[in-house]
Prior knowledge:
The protein has helices at 9-20, 27-43, 45-56, 69-78, 83-98, 137-150, 169-178, 188-197, 214-223, 248-259, 274-288, 294-301, 311-321, 350-355, 391-407, 411-422; strands at 5-8, 105-109, 112-120, 123-127, 130-131, 134-135, 154-158, 182-184, 207-210, 228-229, 237-242, 266-271, 304-307, 325-329, 343-346, 381-388. By secondary structure, the protein is an alpha/beta fold.
Amino acid sequence: MISLRVLKGEDAWKFLVDLESRELDLSVFMESVRPMIEQVKFREDEAISDLIERLYGVKLTPDDFQVSDGVIDEAISLIKEDIPILEELISRVKEFYSRQKIEDFIVREGESEYGVRWVPLESIGIHVPEGEDFSYFSTLIYTAVPAKIAGVKRISVFTPPLAKGLVNPYLLAAARLSGVDKVYRVGGAAAVAAMAYGTTTIPNVQKIFGTGDLFFMTAKKMVSPDVAIDFPSTPVEHVVIAGNRAEISTVAWEVISQAEHGLDTFITVLTQDEQLAEDIKTGINDLVERISNPVVKRILDDSKILALSNWREVKEAVEVISPARISVIGEIGDEIEFDNVGAVIWNTPSPLVDYALGVPQRLPSSRYSRFRGPLTLYDFMKSVLTVKINGKMVRKLLDLSEKIARMEGMTLHADYLREISKS
């Protein structure tokens, strides 16, 4: 039996108010991460080797950092029967992202034109966690494939080495099939520093993508003044909204399956029906008795079911939490819309969305969904302003430009424009 609690009334809202002020506090990790970054900046490959041995217990020379083509070929041969599955997933991701059109916005007036054009980044790095029992190769696919479609020229993948410096064969196969250029047996904070500043054997990148533990997240935030980074996607955040006629077993499976992500996972159930809340608690407890995963049980011990008064309060609760994702099970009415959330899944199993649909898997956590959404092609591109106007438009805008310059106190700007008007 787990200690999953149902909160009602004031207790529910006190829980929500506490969540509103939550932030991803990385300060406690900075003391450990800062020396790692500094070592890589000044000792480069030697520091990477030392950190890999210290963090993962694997001795690697700089020549061993990059996984060779031969090793990737061997990995593909080991899982050749499953290659069609990877190819089908990659095809679905390609199909979805290929529908997103990135178009320049150019205004043309006669012979003059001005506007914004989009250009792909030159290089990116993708960090993909793996361990002896897991490898998030789908995260690689869902990041590398849209990067390739966007036109990124150099895509590198970084992952922690397993015992004896091995890398999961599914991850290596996914990298090859997704168009990744290089795979490095370098993970965590060491990988972040290598991506940000480069070493003799590892070129730096323009932007860092990917997920990892809180040491990785800390490192990514610390290097952000020097290199572009994506958004936080740790911890996993999943809010289940149980509506009218919600299947108890479906709600229980939504909760328990998402708790599998790890100890920092955030799970909450929202409903307007107190009896349904109690039934869900019973359903989750019954299902937990059938599994042996201790991590899931610890996550659910800290999770809550909130029984609120009506759907308006449920919507307000979602706005307060601003989670990465919500799953709606049952019926709540078409008039309710959720804006401060990375994704809304309506009566669809979330693992299906995680894996097979082809839609963005990477979602913003830590309340970042208040101001940004999931991964799109724009994340792999930058905009460039372009202006090419003829003499007629120059003369048309001179007077206005000069007046604005003088109003702002920029007299040299104004004088420059006045001189042009004389010619």
